[in-house]
Description:
Layout: H1 3-29, E1 45-53, H2 58-66, E2 71-80, E3 86-89, E4 101-104, H3 109-143
Antiparallel strand pairs: 1-2, 3-4
Helix pairs in contact: 1-3
Amino acid sequence: MDLIQCxxxxxxxxxxxxxxxxxxxxxxxxxxTTRTADGTPYRRKTSIFETTPIGVSFxxxxxxxxxxxxxxxxxxxxxxxxxxxKKIFDPSHPDADKNGYVHLPNVNLVEEMVQMLNAxxxxxxxxxxxxxxxxxxxxxxxxxx
Length: 145
């Protein structure tokens, strides 16, 4: 594996974590949304990761099919999380049901913050891997002088 492939793998991880952070931000922004376009409370979403081959050219795909294939990561889909909505009694709320209960989104702020910290640390780790690969390439160039 060469240094460019290391950078490609880390870059795919950074892109996936950026998407994950966007989904978490959307969850936090809608933590109190009691009615969406379909008339239900906002449902928490999560991103699903999957491996993806690194290298997009035909030659790279052919070469990887003959040897061990190197994979990166990508977000395959963003899915709503099932679970019950929180209920609070507030008959004066415009979205209250006939019994006076308001259904709130299934977003847990503490859990979202933990997920945000986790995604942030993963992003930083991938950035550090890119920095290290860059430094290794520069050192290799210095050896040739």
